[in-house]
Amino acid sequence: MPFEPGLVHTPLTPFSNDGRIDFDRYAKVIEFHLRHGADALAVPMHAGESVSLTDVERRQLIAFVVERAGKRAPVIAHVSDAGTGIATALAKHAQAAGAAAIAATTPYYWTPPPAMVLEHFLQIGSAVDIPFFVLNAPEDMAGAKINADLALKLIAKLPNFSGVVDASLDWQFMIELMTSAPRARDGFALIAGTELMVSAAAIGASGMFSALAAIAPKLARELFDLCRQQKLFEARARQEDVAALRQIVKPGGVAALKAAVRAMGRDCGNTRPPLLPLDAAAEKKLAAAIGALRALADEPRGW
Amino acid sequence: MQNKFRGVMQSPVTPLKDDFSLDLPTFERLLDFHVRAGAPAISWPHHKGESLNLTIAERKLFAEAAVKVVGGRVPVTIHVSALAVEDTMELARHAQEIGADGILAITPYFWTPTLEAIEAYFVRLCTSVDLPVLSYNSPSYLAGVEITGELMANLIETLPNFVGVKEASFNSEKFLEISRAALAMRPNFSMLTGVEFLLPSVPLGGNGSYSAAGSICPNLCNELFDTCVAGEWGRARELQFKMTRLWHLFKDQYPSSLKGGMVIMGRPVGPTRAPLPTATPERQAYIRTQLEELGILDSEPHGW
User: Fold this and answer.
1) What predicted TM-score, i.e. pTM, was given to this entire model?
2) How many CB atoms lie within 10 A of CB A293?
3) Would the pLDDT of B140 be above 50?
4) Looking at beta carbons, which residues of chain B come within 8 Å of A179?
5) Residues with Cβ < 8 Å from B71, sequence gap 6 or more?
6) Which one of A16, A255, B30, B288 is least enclosed by Cβ atoms within 10 Å?
């Protein structure tokens, strides 16, 4: 049965002052996302500092979110890792814990050639029965990327390979993918990996992953709904609002996201090393920029 | 200044004789073909017109022919980018002298110029002519050199004849960065993409493109644009996917494959200058099978 993720929020992971996952706060984070427009949750994505969590923590976190979300929303478990065996074990655990789907990107660090990427994904995907989504995020992954040929090979070998979450924003790749993959697999999904969805929706994207929903859930929801209704000219104004918000937070990465949610009255603590928090001046500047953004006037403050 | 640069604008290839010299009569036929086939504007010589493999004297000669043959039926812009910026300035002045409707220029080649250097370049170019100037952003061909939204805003603010950009990153965020900055300041700015990537760019404020495959399929180019502007996204998707299959066919050894395809369409334009190869008979036969499969032979004009 095809699984349509819809608008997927990718929550931040709150840490306490001593650097541990703050599960009390995390429960509030999950409630916030569920009450503010998430069709599904994906955890822990890069915005959730997946790479800085231990294997045990990732398992705890996925189980925690599945339990909290209950029947209200499906949970997509992010299982990317450098080692194929480690990622595969995480995938199995996620399925056992009740995740609705898994997602993974290319292996970290190894600058893998295409054959290695294919084998990595084949092992992860075949370890589970639930839907498997591949993330294409070349900017995060030192240039390692997915192409349409790889997608077709995965379709041929993995019955649960369900789609690509694209953060490359590359028109040529998305068009090539959607020209061939949906013909090879019914219900194959292109999912926008960021809130820059308008062009992806024109090409045929049906879902969207959103980290900025932690700051501006109404903006994410309105943009997504217009895109899903193919009201693409109407979506442009909200798309430009997203671009303005991205311009403020993108240079500072996850630390800037955490500063931004603090400015919105939802403190999630600071980032874990090696990511450094913004210094006081930068945080003040960012908070001022967020406060001045008219597009965020109707967004929820506090929890 | 009114925006006359919109739709899928055609940039003719450069016809050559078997000895690789310029073939003026065929160039004149090709220009006339593009205009009769519905091109909203003509621009020459783009990289697909082998601009960098032509001498400055050759570029001037054909620029004059383009303006003369088109004869005011549609606007003609001259692509003035050259390895030496001094040549670019010379070509820009020449374009103005011969009565062209505008010029197009890419960020300077080779030197990976800083943003300050790019700004100085466009300021110099725009203040040296009275013609409308279109800029050209192509980071993937120019080692990552690109125009930022902030630079675009500076140029628009200071230069009244800076009227458009061909934004050829083919990336949602980069296109949006520039379109957001430009259209807020100048709503009739020509926000163009390359290679007919209209489906993803028109909803972001795009109002046209230059064409890669227009000498093969002018009808498809115009229909794709009209469908996007009308917001008929389902139909636009079908047409864009077809257009992009053609791009994949031709981008291998571009523009040699394009010239090879033109033989199939009954519009032969001769070989391609080195270092680019010329499409072999085998390559042409393969192109024919692809054009047949895509239905291009039935839906597009054959011959001149």
Assistant:
1) 0.93
2) 18
3) yes
4) 241, 244-245
5) none
6) A16
SS3 call for B124: helix
Interatomic CA distance for residues B266 and B304, integer angstroms: 7
pLDDT of residue B145: 79
User: CA nearest B109: which of B79, B142, B136?
Assistant: B142
pLDDT in the model for residue A1: 55
Give the chain A residue nearest B177 (alpha carbons). Answer: A243
| Contact predicate B23/B270, CB 8 Å | yes
Residue B144: pLDDT band (50, 70, 90) is confident
- What ipTM did this prediction achieve? 0.90
Q: Give the Cα separation of A277 and A275 in Å (integer).
A: 7
Q: Are A258 and A14 in contact (CB under 8 A)?
A: no
The residues, ordered by sequence, that sit 6+ positions from A283 with a Cβ below 8 Å of its Cβ are A259, A262, A277
Query: Which among A106, A81, A111, A76 is positioned nearest to A94, based on CA atoms?
Result: A76
CA dihedral (A169, A171, A177, A180) in degrees, to 10, reads 160
pLDDT in tens, A270-292: 999 999 999 999 999 999 999 99
* Chain B: closest CA distance from residue A183 (Å): 13
* Contact (CB<8Å) B204/A239: yes
Write out the two tokens for B106.
């890419």
Mean per-residue pLDDT, A104-121: 94
Within 8 A of B205 by CB-CB distance, chain A residues are 236
Q: Is B144 on the interface with A (CB under 8 A)?
A: no
Amino acid at B280: T
For residue A56, give the 3-state DSSP assignment.
helix
B1, pLDDT greater than 50 = no
Which residues are within 8 A (CB) of A155 and not within 5 positions of it... i.e. 6 or more apart? A161, A181, A184, A185, A188
Q: CB-CB: which of B176, B231, B244 is closest to A243? A: B176
Given a contact cutoff of 8 angstroms between Cβ atoms, the answer to whether B71 and B42 are in contact is no
A188 vs A177: CA distance, rounded Å: 10
- The token pair that represents A259 in the structure block: 């500063």
Each residue's pLDDT tens digit, A45-73? 999 999 999 999 999 999 999 999 999 99
CA distance A61 to B129: 63
Among A136, A181, A192, A190, CA closest to A158: A181
CB B129 within 8 Å of CB B159: no
CA distance A209 to A221: 11
> Long-range contacts made by residues A183-186, C-beta under 8 angstroms, separation at least 24?
A184/A152, A184/A155, A184/A156, A185/A155, A185/A161, A186/A2
What pLDDT is attached to residue B191? 97
User: Residues near B193 by Cβ (< 8 Å), separated by ≥ 6?
Assistant: B166, B167, B168, B170, B175, B201, B206, B208, B209
Q: What's the pLDDT at B130?
A: 97
Q: How many residues does chain A have?
A: 303
pLDDT for res A143: 82
Across the interface, of B180, B233, B245, the residue whose CB is closest to A179 is B245
Question: B188-205, pLDDT tens digit by residue?
Answer: 999 999 999 999 999 999
Instruction: Find out whether A192 and A177 touch, Cβ atoms under 8 Å.
Output: no
